[in-house]
Amino acid sequence: MPRIMIKGGVWRNTEDEILKAAVMKYGKNQWARIASLLHRKSAKQCKARWYEWLDPSIKKTEWSREEEEKLLHLAKLMPTQWRTIAPIIGRTAAQCLEHYEYLLDKAQNREESEDDPRRLKPGEIDPNPETKPAKPDPIDMDEDELEMLSEARARLANTQGKKAKRKAREKQLEEARRLAALQKRRELRAAGIEIKKQRRKKRGVDYNAEIPFEKKPAPGFYDTSQESYDPLNPNYKKLRQQAFDGELRAAKEERERRKDKQKQKKRKENDLPGMIASQGNFQEPVKKRSKLVLPAPQISEAELEEVVKVGQASEYARQQAEEGGVQNGATQALLQDYNITPNTAALRTPRTPAVHDNILQEAQNIMALTHVDTPLKGGLNTPLHNSDFSGVIPRHQLAQTPNTLLGTPFRTPGIMGSEDGMTPKGGMTPQQQLAIGPPGQTPLRTPIRDKLNINQIEDFEGGAYHQDLKEQLRRGLAGLPTPRNDFEIVVPEDMNAPTEEQTEETPYVEDQADLDDQTEEERQARLQKEMKLRSQAVQRDLPRPIDVNMDVLRILGSNDPPLTELQKAEELIKQEMITMLHYDAVYSPTPAQLGIVPGKKNLPSQKSVVNQAAHLAYLEQNPFEKISEDDIEMAVTLLKHEMEVVRKGMGHGELSLESFCHVWDECYSQVLFLPSMNRYTRANLASKKDRIESLEKRLENNRNHMTKDAKNAAKLEKKLKILLGGYQSRSQALVKQVTDLYEQLEQTYVEYKTFDDLRRHETGAIPKRLESLKEDVQRQTERERELQNRYSDLQFKLSKYS
Amino acid sequence: MAGEVVVDALPYYDHGYDETGVRDAALALVEEETRRYRPTKNYLEYLPAPNYNAFETEIIKAEFERLQARLPMDMLSMKRYELPAPPAGKMTDVAAWLESVENSQAQLEHQALRILNLELISEYGSNAWKMYNDTLVKMLEQCQKQLQELKKKIQEINWQRKNEQTQAGSQLKELEAKWVGLVSKNYEIERACVELERELAEYEQKNKARQGKR
Q: Where is this region: Disordered (chain A) (predicted)?
């Protein structure tokens, strides 16, 4: 029985080389002939090897993203039909299958592991060795391999077939015949016999005799027919050894070397990173990166150019206008500077919309489809995530770079790839475009640079823009600190200067801090002194009226009786009082006088400013006389004296605070506000209706206060509820737990008592039972003894008989 | 009569409590006892006589009456919080107006107090709640400890009971076994005695007969 040889196995390098050469010779149709060169492979295997691996048109590069997308998409449309899919993608079927499986593994996050069934185990034979790279040749090749190699070499070196050989032989013969004929003709010519060429060409051009399509040059101005070149009179300058030999080798080398050096130098200058890479032990990244896929720019080249052109044109126009020398001319107003990009700082940095990982998604979809249960069970279809079956080619999406810088109002991002600008055609307003704009664009667009207001405001979202500007300005101004009306009076230090000069003679220099303290003290003392000169109302910081009531002055009519002395004195006092009030209102105003309402942070209102002006105006007319300290002292003593007198006269001692309060309350109750007249009067002067009205007004006021307070309180309560709600719920839970526990405790206590009782019972019961049992036993033993006695008696009696 | 019954059950030693009917019988016994039991005298006589009207005020009395009549509680009158104007009939009465204004002032004061309290709560409330919760947690812990102790005590008692009863039980069992042995032994002796007596009687008869023959 002959040994059956099964061909196949791993392809070796020699085999690959032979196969390639053989394909070169025999073409891609004679696989049997090719296989005869490789005695370890069959024709089919050779063909497979060629079409799966060796064909130079096979792409062995890394898979690109588009290819992967396409592969997954097609695999979904035509499952397992790799031969159909492969040419569409441009790879071989085996490559497609392999990469598909790789992608699915990646989608499952499965690493290449030992127990992968696709991996070859030791001892296993590769089922399709055609798609694997060749195995390198061993240094010591087998006998039969060497034989195969030499035979193949011999056969393939013989590039000529039978026909070619015959043709070559014929050619050689003809050449020989031609040479012989030539020789013969030469000899005959030497002998003087001219033989005509026997063979004449019937058709065509005799290239030896004539020049085809020859054009004679036009005759020049001079007749050149007489000129002749004398070959025997050569130009010796051109016949030097140097000229014949060409350049010397050494010189050439020298030049090349110099050039090389220069080049190196240049490279050193330009290519620093390359230098670093070559000098340091720089390692090439292990994994080659795939090609960077960037979205096409949104602004086309043409548009950019246009922008530049416009800018240049405006710049040019400016220059011209300035050269004209007319400053502030009409042209100047029409030209604007667009050089600076408007506040780019305020722009939000755009973000490219996140791109979905289509490949992973698709791979997962396919996984879901393959791991499905039997359809006989019914139920829902396997859910797929945004899988598209719309066409053969997978839908493609590219991330667009959001364009914020050059968001000119009349340009809109158009369809990708359309070269000619993106100007909207027809009357499309930008608002509409915004509405239908592509997703992922930032809603906030660049402020438009339109300083001349050429565009109508409603053409774009300019209304909002202007408001935005206003808002911005307002916000900027709000950041300013509120003005504070506190002024510090700084007394010039010159007053102390001479004394200081005197002290400077001594070597001791006073510490600056001490000096400062001293001046501060002095200032304080001065202020206090000034304060003492002020009115009592200011000193005690009592509330003072906002408006000074001038009505207290008695205005003399023409027919009034002249004032008495007492009345005159009163008038004088009143006059003085009013002046003091004005003075105080100007120089030490109370917060109320400044119009500051407590609780509200507010600037001094308009009204207070007007008031201040009025006070000042009054003081201008009636200047405030400063009173010396002694005068005040005297006045105080006078007052005291007067008080003593009054007290003695009225016959009462020190009044208690309560009586003061009583009097105050009574007086206060007499004050009534008349809302209709907007003034205060005495209560007993007002009518009943007025009083009711006043009360109503007060009630109304109180109501307003109430609503405000209630709102406040409600807000506070709400806040507290949020703040303390957690604690409250926790405490509730705790309380419930505690009560539960107490109940349990009680029950357990009862149980405990019961068991205790039971135990007491049992301790009593045990001896009792024991005793009774013992008694029983005792009785039985006694009885036994009795019975035994009786028995022995009987026995004895019986023995007597027997 | 109740005192005469001596309970001498030893549940850890005795068996048969789980058999059917035993429990019912026991329950029936308890039932019968409760039916028969009459508290003859006031067992609370060592306590002073209660004074049921100690806390009764007018308001509580009225409330109890309302409860007896099963009437719903009056809603809290919110009228004064709305700061009402005087009633329609007294629109021209100065005193009524004064009253309502005073009421409004009182309410304003109340509101101010409320706000004050709320502010105080907002400042100290969280701390106070925390303290309260801490106390509660402590109480809870204490309770749990107590409960644990009680349970332990119960277990101990039961343990003791079991020990005592098993100890006594072994004694009892021994005695019982002894008793049974004695009883059976006595019985056999008695029977043997009877046999002997019978034999003796026979012999006597024979003797008599023989003597008679002689």
A: 108-141, 194-278
> Tokens in use for A711?
């709102």
pLDDT of residue A386: 66
List CB contacts (< 8 A) between A727 and chain B.
126, 129-130, 132-133
Q: Check pLDDT > 80 for residue A177.
A: yes
DSSP B95-121: HHHHHHHHHHHHHHHHHHHHHHHHHHI
Asked if residue A756 lies in contact with residue B155, where contact means CB atoms within 8 angstroms, the answer is: no
Q: How far apart are CA A595 and CA A607, in angstroms?
A: 8
B134 pLDDT tier (thresholds 50, 70, 90): very high
pLDDT tens digits for range A747-761: 999 999 999 988 888
Largest Cα span, chain B: 156
In sequence order, what are the beta bridge partners of A679?
A: A674
Contact assignment for A744 to B147 by CB distance below 8 Å: yes
What chain A residue is nearest to B141 in terms of C-alpha separation?
A: A738
Cα separation values, A351 from A294, A344, A399, Å: 14, 16, 10
Polymer length of chain B: 214
Contacts of B130 in chain A (CB under 8 A): 727
What is the pLDDT at residue A145?
87
- How many pairs of residues across A and B have Cβ atoms under 8 Å apart? 188
Cα A175 from Cα A167, distance rounded (Å): 12
Burial label, A415 (beta-carbon count in 10 A; 0-12, 13-18, 19+): exposed
**Burial of residue A70, with CB atoms counted within 10 A of its CB: 0-12 exposed, 13-18 middle, 19 or more buried:** buried
Angstrom distance (rounded) from CA A563 to CA A571 = 9
Q: Measured between beta carbons, which residues in chain A are less than 8 angstroms from residue B118?
A: 713, 716-717, 720
The radius of gyration computed from the CA coordinates of chain B, to the nearest angstrom, equals 44
Distance CA A104, CA A72 (A): 9
* Interface predicted TM-score (ipTM): 0.72
Distances in whole angstroms, Cα of residue A443 to Cα of each of A92, A296, A334:
47, 21, 32
Question: pTM of the predicted model, to two decimals?
Answer: 0.37
Residues A446-480: pLDDT tens digits? 444 555 665 554 444 445 667 778 888 888 888 78
